[in-house]
Amino acid sequence: MLYLGLEVWYECRQKSEKVTIYPSQSYFCFDITVPTSPTLCRTVSISNLLTAKHSMRCTKGVETCKTREDDVIVVAYPKSGTHWVWEMVRLLQAGTTDVPLVEKDDGMIEDVVPETLEALPSPRALNTHAHFELMPQDILKKKSCKLIYVTRDPRDVMVSYFNHHRKLTQYYNYSGQWKDYFPLFLSGKVDYESWFAYTQGWEQGMKDNPDLQVHVTSYEALHENTEEEIKKTAGFLGTSADKAFLREVMKKTDFESMRATKGKNETFEGGAVMYRKGKVGDWKNWFTVAQSEQFDAVFEQEMKGTKAYELYSIKKQDFSTPDRNMNEK
């Protein structure tokens, strides 16, 4: 997981071509302080941004990461199904569901140092929450590796992210209530900053680079017809589309199976928030009428004309159906 908003580093880089990390040094208006070492942020203060410790060296290594032709990179805003899709990709690449237990963070581009990524054997299943403009430049130059872009209803993202920040107490120490968190998310004062900017950036990036190999899916589509979406993913990757195997992959990566096999390893102080509920439409249990109206107004202003608007505008969908169990990974 990334605990320091990547856009903060990007803004610093834009303001100065040479930004060196020193202990107890503040940077521009972001007030970034690294009190313990040149590379590891034990505590980070970035104005009102909700963040926690992270290695600056990992963050800076994102843009220079070297890709391979057989790499598959799952890209998504946090709490949008990255775990779920990444596990599917791993099994599809291997051609079997009998694979070693590996943590997603081991292949997270912004969470490990470049040397660790370089040591991973091919084909690599990587993942990132990075904004498009912060993706490895190698991707745009070579355009040979494959990307899987996953989107999710931002209202469900917000609810899941709230629980993430509340329960990972050893990282965030966040004790605010839902009513306090709601404006933080809307204004982008969370890890990876604005969902709206992230989504706009990726849509524009894919539009400007039509020769990028990108498969687009959504959390909702994956839930609605999991087997069909896995089949589409296998077709994109050029891996086995045997029906029996795809059903094995679906079973191995369903919510209960993932929670049983991986939840124990990904349980942090405060609870196993990586595998919380796994539902579509859970936001209806959290949003007040006033919050829903406020969100709709912001969404209309920020996202009108985008593909995400077509997917998630309240004017385009009927969210009156009951909550349905699905994989939240």
TrEMBL record:
SUPFAM superfamilies: P-loop containing nucleoside triphosphate hydrolases. Residues 70-306 form the Sulfotransferase domain. InterPro entries: P-loop_NTPase (IPR027417), Sulfotransferase_dom (IPR000863). Keywords: Transferase. One of its GO terms (molecular function) is sulfotransferase activity. The keyword Transferase applies. Pfam families: Sulfotransfer_1. PANTHER family: SULFOTRANSFERASE SULT. Belongs to the sulfotransferase 1 family. This is Sulfotransferase family cytosolic 1b member 1. It comes from Plakobranchus ocellatus.
